[in-house]
Amino acid sequence: MEGLFSIAAWEKVWIYRSTFLLGLYNTGRMALLALLLSLLLGMLFGLMATGGKKYLQGISRVYVELIQNTPLILQLCFLYYALAFSGKSLGIIVTGTISLGIYHGAYVSEVIRAGIGSISKGQFEAADSQGFNYVEKMYYVILPQSIKIILPPMVNQVVNLIKNTSCLYIIGGADLISLTYSFVTGATTGGAYAPAYLVSGLLFFVVCFPLSTLAGMWEDSLKKRDRRAAGGQKAIS
């Protein structure tokens, strides 16, 4: 086993750098497709949760509670092996993408529900007085105002989604962590554990750190803007 300070281990990682780049590409592709699915599901169930109809709220609540209170790895394994044993396997990457999308869709739904819930009832009443239907009310009045509440935690969900692609390792995926494991256990590439996992971690960091920093800066900026607005209103009164 070659350690962190082994020149031979680092040379091996450099020679096979395409393995890590391929893993990063697969991780990015899965994350992007899963994000689109999670946004679709999150918007759907978030609107159902705030639509005022009890049965739609109930359906949304069941989805959110079921997904949030069971592990992603369990959901991933269930979907993968259920499809495999039924003879309708979609492949590891597609199965992983769907699992990630469904899992994070529940969290996106809660983000959207909280954002819509932060808008005062007067805005809803004003939209109703203008004769807007539900879709028009959300599109023209409510969602534009709630976007500043929604976006910072949404960016955090993107970061979490990218990191959670590592769960595909459990079913032998082609993501960054899975290919790193294949590299360190390969017949011709095995042994360079410390350098390989360090490089893998740095690649995740390079992608995730700017996004998490952006979310933090965005949230701080919104808080400062709200404080300035509140100060201005006090000065006027």
TrEMBL record:
<feature type="transmembrane region" description="Helical">
    <location>
        <begin position="196"/>
        <end position="218"/>
    </location>
</feature>
<keyword id="KW-1003">Cell membrane</keyword>
<feature type="transmembrane region" description="Helical">
    <location>
        <begin position="30"/>
        <end position="50"/>
    </location>
</feature>
<dbReference type="GO" id="GO:0022857">
    <property type="term" value="F:transmembrane transporter activity"/>
</dbReference>
<comment type="similarity">
    <text>Belongs to the binding-protein-dependent transport system permease family. HisMQ subfamily.</text>
</comment>
<feature type="domain" description="ABC transmembrane type-1">
    <location>
        <begin position="24"/>
        <end position="215"/>
    </location>
</feature>
<dbReference type="InterPro" id="IPR000515">
    <property type="entry name" value="MetI-like"/>
</dbReference>
<dbReference type="InterPro" id="IPR010065">
    <property type="entry name" value="AA_ABC_transptr_permease_3TM"/>
</dbReference>
<feature type="transmembrane region" description="Helical">
    <location>
        <begin position="89"/>
        <end position="108"/>
    </location>
</feature>
<feature type="transmembrane region" description="Helical">
    <location>
        <begin position="167"/>
        <end position="184"/>
    </location>
</feature>
<dbReference type="InterPro" id="IPR035906">
    <property type="entry name" value="MetI-like_sf"/>
</dbReference>
<dbReference type="GO" id="GO:0006865">
    <property type="term" value="P:amino acid transport"/>
</dbReference>
<keyword id="KW-0472">Membrane</keyword>
<protein>
    <submittedName>
        <fullName>Putative glutamine transport system permease protein</fullName>
    </submittedName>
</protein>
<dbReference type="InterPro" id="IPR043429">
    <property type="entry name" value="ArtM/GltK/GlnP/TcyL/YhdX-like"/>
</dbReference>
<keyword id="KW-0812">Transmembrane</keyword>
<keyword id="KW-1133">Transmembrane helix</keyword>
<dbReference type="Pfam" id="PF00528">
    <property type="entry name" value="BPD_transp_1"/>
</dbReference>
<keyword id="KW-0813">Transport</keyword>
<feature type="transmembrane region" description="Helical">
    <location>
        <begin position="62"/>
        <end position="83"/>
    </location>
</feature>
<keyword id="KW-0029">Amino-acid transport</keyword>
<dbReference type="GO" id="GO:0043190">
    <property type="term" value="C:ATP-binding cassette (ABC) transporter complex"/>
</dbReference>
